[in-house]
Amino acid sequence: YSNPGETVLDPFAGIGSTGHVALQHGRKFIGIELKPSYFDIAAHNLDMATVSMTQTLFDLNAVSVPAGA
User: Fold this and answer.
1) What is the CA radius of gyration of the chain?
2) Can you tell me the distance from the alpha carbon of 1 to that of 36, in angstroms, rounded to the nearest whole number?
3) Could you write out the three-class secondary structure of 35-62?
């Protein structure tokens, strides 16, 4: 449980699903992930979460998906 504006810590961030939801609900997020491939996917997912807060569905066509995702 957290309040808007607080920070959510996920020591096993995986593909960033916790961070994605945290950002969408007005929280800050710190994630830790050791596996580089998961980190890359998480970084993309978190970028998408921040983009989706400011853009419409039609604007998302301009966002590219990283190779291997």
Assistant:
1) 12
2) 28
3) CHHHHHHHHHHHHHHHHHHHCCHHHHHH
Q: Whose CA is closest to 47, among 67, 64, 33, 25?
A: 64
pLDDT tens track for 16-58: 999 999 998 999 999 999 999 999 999 999 998 887 766 665 6
pTM exceeds cut of 0.85: no
Helix-helix angle 36-54:17-24, to 10 degrees: 20
DSSP-assigned letter for residue 14: T
Cα(37)–Cα(22) distance, integer angstroms: 21
